[in-house]
Amino acid sequence: MEYILLIIGAILVNNIVFAQTLGICPFLGVSGKISSSVGMGAAVVFVITLATLVTFLLNQYVLVPLSLGFLQTIVYILVIAALVQMVEIILKKVSPSLYSALGIFLPLITTNCAVLGVALLVIQKEFTLLQSLVYGFSTAIGFGLALIIMAGIREQLELQSVPKGMKGSPITLVTAGILALAFMGFANLV
Amino acid sequence: MSAKINQWKNFSKGILKENPALVLMLGMCPTLAVTSSAFNGLGMGLATTFVLVLSNMLISAIKTQVPDKVRIPCFIVVIAAFVTVVDLLIQGFLPSLAESLGVFIPLIVVNCIVLGRAEAFASKNGVFSSLIDGLGMGLGFTFALTLLGMLREALGAGSFFGCKFIDGDGIIVFILAPGAFIVLGFLVALIRHLSAKKN
């Protein structure tokens, strides 16, 4: 039950894009088409879950025992960058079809602040390893969900006539704001 | 004389014409997340400026020593080091600001403005030009964040830098995440409209 609440909380109530405003750059950048947003969402789920696992273990067994907590930021960002690179290399070898589907989105993920954000948040919230993994995974699902909903709306928006000054990012931001308002309706769910 | 004018152009482009947050749409996460009050926006902007200026200077100084292939990881380490410095300084001297900015101070590492300037400017230009560029971009970002923070605070809490000017609450949704998206959206639209008129 505890884990179900954690999952619902991370996907709907505290949605990483609409409630915590993390990972906005890829959210605005890649939400133009449904197909590419599905690819990006899948890549993010993969990397966030893996990054949460590695950074959690590293923090627990290396940084804390050696009292090197102040190196957290540097170590985490290096781990994430290395991890993304590694995932890219492994995918290329093991599953070329998945690689070509995720291809261009993988390198972009290093600068997705949702990845580093989740890694730092699970330490701050003092989660256990399993809780961290569940939280990381469902947060990433929430990110993918936000991306796909937004892409669906933007595909429709292409066909509408938007005032000149509002074209492009302004209308996207306002749409995201209205979506965020809708997501606030989930607030009392947990 | 012309060198001086160039440095001025170099400085001022970040504030208006190439404002990172309002025109280039970079660094969106902190722009949306921490601008619930004018003071938070100002604090975040200045912290980012600090990192931007120092990392620009150091990266410009070491640019000839770093092999081209590993430059991005090297830049990230330099940036992460300065972010750690800022993080510890804010925790030490401004604990209340550290509390309200929370996880967004370490997240300056992944702010695309910092790595973007390192890659686009500091890795190609001298130390002094990079300093000016970092300062201009940083202050432009600070300006954008403070402006957004002021608007959201005025609408959402009815106050200006913490001084209340109405009785009771404002429209609370403007302090929350939806307000951030909506206010920024209209602000960017206004700026585009004005600059289109000027041309």
Could you provide a short overview of the structure?
The complex is a heterodimer of chains A (190) and B (199). Chain A has 190 residues and is an all-alpha fold.
Encode the helix/strand succession of chain B as letters: HHHHHHHEEH
Category from helices, strands and their pairing of chain B: mainly alpha
Helical content band of chain B = 55-70%
> Which range best describes the helical content of chain A: under 10%, 10-25%, 25-40%, 40-55%, 55-70% or over 70%?
over 70%
On the 0-100 scale, what is the average pLDDT of chain B? 88
* Biggest sheet overview of chain B: 2 strands, antiparallel
Which secondary-structure class do the elements of chain A indicate? Answer: mainly alpha
Order of helices and strands of chain A: HHHHHHHHH
Principal-axis shape of chain B equals: globular
Protein architecture, described:
The complex is a heterodimer of chains A (190) and B (199). By secondary structure, chain A is an all-alpha fold. Chain A has one domain. Helix content of chain A is 74%, strand content 0%. Chain A contains nine helices and no strands. The longest helix of chain A has 30 residues, at 34-63. Chain A starts with a helix and ends in a 6-residue tail after the last helix. By secondary structure, chain B is mainly α. Chain B has one domain (2-150). Chain B is 68% helix and 2% strand. Chain B has eight helices and two strands; from the N terminus they run αααααααββα. Chain B has a two-stranded antiparallel ribbon with strand order 1-2. The longest helix of chain B is centred in the last third of the chain and has 31 residues, at 127-157. The two termini of chain B are 28 Å apart.
Q: What's the topology here?
A:
The complex is a heterodimer of chains A (190) and B (199).
Chain A lengths: L1 H12 L10 H7 L3 H30 L8 H23 L1 H7 L2 H4 L4 H12 L4 H29 L11 H16 L6
Helix pairs in contact in A: 1-8, 3-4, 3-7, 3-8, 4-5, 4-7, 7-8
Chain B lengths: L1 H11 L15 H6 L4 H25 L8 H23 L1 H7 L10 H11 L4 H31 L1 E2 L2 E2 L12 H22 L1
Antiparallel strand pairs in B: 1-2
Helix pairs in contact in B: 1-7, 3-4, 3-6, 3-7, 4-5, 4-6, 6-7, 7-8
